[in-house]
Amino acid sequence: THLESADDTPRAVDIGWSLATTRAALDHRAVILTDTGADTDNGTDNGSGGGEAMAALTALATGQPHPRLITGQAGVDGKTVFVFPGQGSQWTGMGAQLLATSPVFAARMHECAQALAPFTDWDLIDVITGAPGAPGLDRVDVVQPAT
Fold first, then answer.
1. Are the C-beta atoms of 38 and 46 separated by less than 8 Å?
2. Dihedral of CA 113/114/119/120: which sign?
3. What pLDDT digit, counting tens, does each position of 12-30 carry?
4. Which of 12, 66, 103, 130 is most exposed by smallest CB count within 10 Å?
5. Domain ranges of the chain
6. Quick one: which of 5, 38, 2, 33 has its CA closest to 18?
C-alpha cells in the first residue's frame, strides 16, 4: 500500500537497503527478481520491471505464486561456511587474524593446508600469515587455492 500511494516512486536500492538494515532477519524469506535492465548506478528501474516487481510483491502479500517471486524458510543446521567471491577480492593477511583467534577456523585451515601440500610447493598457513619466503598472492597458483 505504501509503494502504491507514494508520491515519488521509491528506488529499488532504497527499498532493499531499508529492508536489509531496519528489519529483523526472520526465518521466512522472499526474493523478488528484477529485470537486469535496471540502472545499477542510481537504483531506478528504467520502466523495465517495476510493474512486474509490483505484481510479484502483490502476489507475496496475497500468498499467490508469481514467476519473479521466490519464497522459502531459512534453515539453520549449525554449520558455517566462509565464501570468498574469487580471485581479485583477496588482500595480504586476509584470514590471518581469524586464523590466530579462532581455534575452529585454524583447525580447518590446517586441514586445508594438509590437503593442498601434495599439490603445491608452498604452505597455505605461511601464505596466509605472510611468513618470510612464502609466495605472494600475485601468483595465480597461490591466490586461487589460498582464497
1. yes
2. positive
3. 788 888 888 888 878 888 8
4. 103
5. 2-73, 96-146
6. 2
